[in-house]
Amino acid sequence: MALRNIRTEGDEVLTRKCREVKEMTPRLKELVNDMLETMYDAEGVGLAAPQVGVLRRIVVIDVGEGPIVLVNPVITAQDGEQTGAEGCLSVPGKAGQVTRPNHVVVRAVDADMQPVEVEGEELLARALCHELDHLDGVMYTSKVEGELYDTTEEEAEEEEAAEEGES
Ligand code: ZN
Prior knowledge:
Order of helices and strands: HEEEEEEEHEH
Number of strands: 8
CATH superfamily: Peptide deformylase
Bound molecules: zinc ion
Mean pLDDT: 94
Distance between the termini: 40 Å
CATH topology: Peptide Deformylase
Radius of gyration: 16 Å
Oligomer: single chain
Shape: globular
Number of helices: 3
């Protein structure tokens, strides 16, 4: 396994539509493992293949309930609505308000090309929508209501506060 380089906004690969996976090759399996490792290393809750420069319909997600690998995922049902802060590993240090369905059902195959169905609410529903959008070259920044804002300043302040708390 190896860490992959995360592409950032402005990289043309993030705006392109991904191709379906017809066969799980050793190379694609390695990609899946690398994507998981890269997501955990970057402390993200999801990562899509185009974010590491590969135009294939593969996403990995972990919202704290264990890893989910989805190959050729499709949303088959959705309902409700949630509006909240969203960020992206390809847009470091930024976040913005995005409205998403509160509940989605996704059909896909896993890394062994076995059929899986994932049902998500709240954060998982948001992560599923966000990552699936990447497969069609759609960035969350195109759906932000209002302005993107910096999260780095907030983090710096939190760190400062934590340091103060220690002393
Ligand atoms: Zn993203």
